[in-house]
Predict the 3D structure of the following.
Amino acid sequence: MDELQKKIDSLDRNRIPVHVAMIMDGNGRWAQKKGFARSEGHAEGISTVHRVTKLSSDLGVKYLTLYAFSTENWNRPPEEVATLMYLIGWAIERELPELLRNNVRIHLLGDIDRIPQEARERLFYAREATAHCTGLQLNMCLSYSSRWEITEAARVLARKAAAGEIDPESISEEVFASSLTTAGIPDPDLLIRTGGEERISNYLLWQIAYSELYFTPVLWPDFSDAEYVDAIIDYQNRERRYGKTSEQVRNNE
Ligand code: IPE
Ligand code: IPE
Ligand code: MG
């Protein structure tokens, strides 16, 4: 039996994270280390997206949320932004048959109106074409930032309150969460960031309140299936206390 299969077999099948979020970082450095243009790293990163999607499906993860392009990434050199937008449109079209075969539903999070038309249309097409799928939900964060999302939600609620449609007193954590783009999606259990930086970079700030964080120095194009399983094994060895004591958790109080 190969090493990967051994690792997969060692997983506790009853404690597979329901929702895994990832910050796919390190494409540029991967390319630069090899003497390539940064865009080569982005292109190579697509094969990691393909693999983690397949493995998430196979392991029974229900939601996989990938940070593909942040609001702040619009500030990169225009040529890099254009290449990324091209690759996003190209990849979603190329991957669609395999996504359908694996019963994966595409969901889009972020200010999608800012995505150039060609890529946007391909994303919308893939979302519609996979709308009936009942397996893994793949949330693609594009032109996404958490502060953008939270500000939008606040604006929507304020508008409703000003119009007398809701009572400000009725705004609970649940109501607020249901105004975010992630409405209806459970919070991430595990957040993985590749590429060595130990920061959140404006990602899912509200939703990761109690997520387990996993940082790895491995650059995104090199992030292997075995390393993904290692992250899940690490997650399964943690005790999620949600503010309680360890004893309370062990006694299921
Ligand atoms: C992540 O890789 C992909 C995006 C942010 C779009 P980077 O492009 O940030 O790679 P590094 O961090 O410069 O190596
Ligand atoms: C975070 O990576 C955004 C994505 C992976 C899409 P960045 O490379 O943009 O993050 P910083 O700038 O190093 O914090
Ligand atoms: Mg980066």
Remarks:
- Residues 23-25, 67-70, 73, 197, 199, 201 surround IPE (ligand 2) (CB under 6 Å).
- The chain is about 45% helix and 15% strand.
- The longest strand covers residues 63-70.
- The beta strands are 19-23, 63-70, 105-109, 137-144, 190-193, 212-215.
